[in-house]
Amino acid sequence: MIPQRHDMSRIGLLGGSFNPAHEGHREISLKAIRLFGLDAVWWLVTPGNPLKAHEDYKYDSYEVRLAAARQVANHPRIVVSNFEARRGLQYTVDTLEALRELWPQMTFIWLMGADSLAGFHKWKDWRAIAGGVPIAVFNRPGFEKAALASETAKELALFRIPSGRAAELADAEPPAWAFIEETANPASASEIRKARSGR
After folding, report:
1. The whole model's pTM is what?
2. How confident is the model at residue 193 (pLDDT cuts 50, 70, 90)?
């Protein structure tokens, strides 16, 4: 799917290593499409997360991760993209800038799991990310407390949209974020990797 410059689509962006992609990624993508009235969710498969150890990438190459993500996505409105690899991008703040430059008419909303919110304050220019795009945070078992007690959640407390009004998030002026409590898929890429390696 390559949007035209006049395209007014509403797009959810789910970035990550997808190492490997799993049903939890798919669940939050489909939930976001329904909840926010999105036209599509783009999975932005990163060549390498600067906050993760190189050791994490020793099993599957980028091409293998990309192909596996396409198999797991298996939905016409979930687009698995190598945008960051093609553009030589490593940081979310730079990816968002590039996307807005290419498609200024489109509405983007950033999607992440609760585990990502817990460490979001470590991301490069995280305040610029939060100030540039609405953020939907999806619950994951075992991470709710850490996410909602995180440095980011505390600093952006005044900009949190209540759960009952979460559907308004895509049209909200950033900074704006919502915590989506209903999702609770226990799938974990790190646990899948551990099982593969027999640890």
Report:
1. 0.89
2. very low
